[in-house]
Structures are given as C-alpha cells and as structure tokens.
Amino acid sequence: MIVLSINPYHPNVSAAIAKDNRITAFGKEGDFLGLEHCSSFPLNSILFCLQKADVKLDDIDYILIPKSPFVHPLERFIVFIKTNFRSGKKRIRSNLRLISIKKDIAKAVKQDTKAKVIFVEHHKAHLADAYYNSGFDNALVFSCDGSGDMTTTMWGMGKGKDINVKGRIKYPHSLGMLYTAFTQALGFTEYGSEYRTTELSSKGMPFYVDIIRKIIHIKKNGKFALDMSYFDIFKKGVVLAVDEGRPILNRLYSDKLYRLLSNIKNRHDIAASLQNVVEEVILNLLNKLRKKYRQNNVCLSGGIFLNKPLCERIIKSNMLDNVYVSKEPADAGTAVGALFYFYNMILKEKLKYEDSIYRPVFLSGSSDELSAPDGSSNTPCRI
Known about the structure:
Blueprint (H helix, E strand, L loop, with lengths): L1 E6 L6 E6 L2 E7 H5 L9 H11 L8 E4 L7 H10 L2 H15 L1 H9 L6 E4 L2 H13 L3 E11 L2 E9 L2 E9 L4 H11 L8 H8 L7 H5 L2 E3 L5 E3 L6 H4 L2 E3 L6 E2 L5 H8 L4 H27 L3 E5 L6 H9 L5 E4 L8 H14 L14 E2 L6 E2 L12
Parallel strand pairs: 1-4, 4-5, 6-13, 13-14
Antiparallel strand pairs: 1-2, 2-3, 6-7, 7-8, 9-10, 11-12, 15-16
C-alpha cells in the first residue's frame, strides 16, 4: 500500500509518503523554493516524494490531508456569520478547494489518480506527529498553534498505538494569534516574524505582565480565553493571501490594543512581558493536565513550540519527567503526522520511519532532478 500525505493551501506546505508501512520521504516546499513559510502548492514536495518512493501518482492508494472541512460545522458557521463577507467567502473557497484536492494534484503532477482522499483533523495530525515519533508507550500529548479546523489548542492521552483526545480550546482563543498580534503591533508585520519578538524579549524585563493578563483570562481548569476587543480577527479575517509564495496576514490587533501598547516606550519590555505570560499560560495548563491524567511524559507539537525559551522553561520547571518536542512542530510536520494518525488510528498498523526523512531537500542539477544533499540532517528536537 502507498499513501501520499500533503499539507496544501496553507503556510508551510509540505508532503510525505509511506510505502510498505514505512515513511519513505518528507519534503517542505520552502526548501525547494528557498522560501520560508512557503504557501505555494507543494508540487516539488509531491514530486520528490514520488521519486524517493519510486512510484507514480496512479500507484497511490490513499491521499491524506491534515485538515478537514467537515469537522465542527456549527462553529464554522458561527465564525462565518461573525466574519466580514469577503473573508467568509475566502473560507468557503478554501474548503471547496480541499474537497476537490484530488483534481488539483492530478492537474499539477499531470497524472491521473484513483486514490481515496482521507481528511485528518489538523491538531490530531500535530498530536500524532509528536507522539508516534517520541518513542513513548504512554504520554500526555499537547498541540498549540494559531488555529486549525476551528481549534487552537488540543490535548489527549497517548497509550500504545492509540491517541485519545481529551479536550481542546476553540478558535479564536489562540496563544499563537496573541503572539502574532503583539508581533505586528511591535512593528514586525511579515509572516513568521514571531521569532523577532522572542529575541526582543531576551533583552527586556516583564514589567507589564499585569497589562497583558487583562487581555487573556486563565480559567481554573487551566484553559484560557482572549478578550476579543483587543483583536480584529473577525473584522477582516486572518490570512489575506496564501496562494503564491509567502503568506500575508491581515492586521490582527485592534485599535484598542494599539492604544494600550502605545503608552509603553520600551519594546523589549513589552516582548518580555508577553513571553512571560505565554509561558505562564502553557505551564499552568500542562500542570493541570499532568495532575488530572497522572502523566509525567509529554509530547508537544504546533507552532507555539518553535519558541525555544518556552520549551526550555517547560524543561527547567521539572514538573514533567520526560518532554518530547516534534521535529517539525510547525504545520509542515502535519503531513507526517497525518500518516502516523492514519496508520495507527485507522488501519491499526505500525508505521516505521527513519530520522533521515527529515533532511532538508533541495533542487539539484536539472529542474526535474530532485534529491537531498549527502550528509544533511535534521537534529531531533528531543529535549
């Protein structure tokens, strides 16, 4: 059996393939194009995977998509009503493209396919990517990012081959969007600039945590909710464009947040305060979940865990015995995660892999020759 998994129409597009119960290849489109957070259709990644597996598109039995237009329909409808008409139309168009994804792949690769399309919910792919890579037989699994399939944070328990989802935080209450909104307000408007805010935070002091705590409410059970008056998420929508190259975001913060921050002159202290609060929120929730499920192993995934100081603080807290962070915590990793989820949770079969699949890939020689450079590697993010 041959299974192709692709993460399309989204920042950090990617593809992965499994043949004979082994992941044969994984490619990030940005590595081929020399473009960070690439949002173009992952054609080069697909071609690379087909080449490494030595198969054609019509040999594929299943095509996996690590997002689903069918989950949480009522929540999608409510968001559609709240969001402005233009942004709402984009959401509908995006979902329709997912439904017709097989035609788009066949057109791009110029080959026919009879493969069956399987949709895997976004954060379930994140959870699977972390858990099945970790080597743990049991663990708390936790995913947190901007948003995906109407969810911003999801957690559950991994035991043996199974992942049992226990809870989630619904869109738009998102730590990822909180961090991005502050990043924009600090003057870094290009997609993927959150690392700049993290860098600023290392040179500041968290003098303004009380101000930021007004924006995010932490509940007794550890869950959190944003005060949406500080954000323009529904007014304009989030992503302005993802079709070509690098994604473009609308302004996420509202005038209210801008006025709040305009009275603070030191950007480093704003960033340090934000970083401190985000770390507090994650640590508090993980601690609540650790106690509730009596589990001291944790597997982490989702874009929020690209934040190295956050990961280091989780480790240094010593509240958990073992911490594993996904090799690809951003959305590119969901292509691999969907494969793990499909094999373990649906087929009930074990999927093998080698760390070498995480090597960065590049165009080498002619445009038709895709290969990975010898000696390259991706260091596993096991901490």
